[in-house]
């Protein structure tokens, strides 16, 4: 049994069938990409997995425990983290403060300190936050204002905020959207290094095939709300069903 299982999930919005009998089994420790044309149901699937949407039928299991019906906060506390398409950071705070906030949270949803004024006295918390910033290459900017970061560095900061929670599964929604090629390549390198160092299972929704084929162990292709094929990146590249559904017959 995989770390995440999507079982016969259906979701409609009025007369639109966004997800049609979706089944997925995500192997622990892998990077699994979900690709497909606009409107294929990728983001709807992600939102079902993290509790932002409730499926009409079917279930989502994480380590054998049901996620369906739980709130996003509860799912996060279970060890599932999400990285959004647009980086979600506290723009008015420093990088260090951004990472301290999730560092304070413990698995029961409480906090290890009760006031910001006491944070600097919590050496363990500060050291943990600084170590994570070091791991994503942002340690030298830890006191900088987060709102002034480049798009690529904002993504790095958000990944640091995610990693400090020690999740077991991370869902990334187009992690390189809007980036320059240089920032995209830097993010690919960072995600690959994260995989080597932390081994966290990742599900990536991505349109950039360079990102997908650089990182993914397995790829699921969706069209019209349904997975149409799953395989290794090399298998996906040569599958005529993928070329037809994703690029209208053009080669990947």
From TrEMBL:
It comes from Roseospira marina. It comes from the Bacteria. GO terms for molecular function: ATP binding; ATP hydrolysis activity. Residues 4-249 form the ABC transporter domain. One of its GO terms (cellular component) is plasma membrane. Pfam families: ABC_tran, BCA_ABC_TP_C. The keyword Hydrolase does not apply. This is ABC transporter ATP-binding protein.
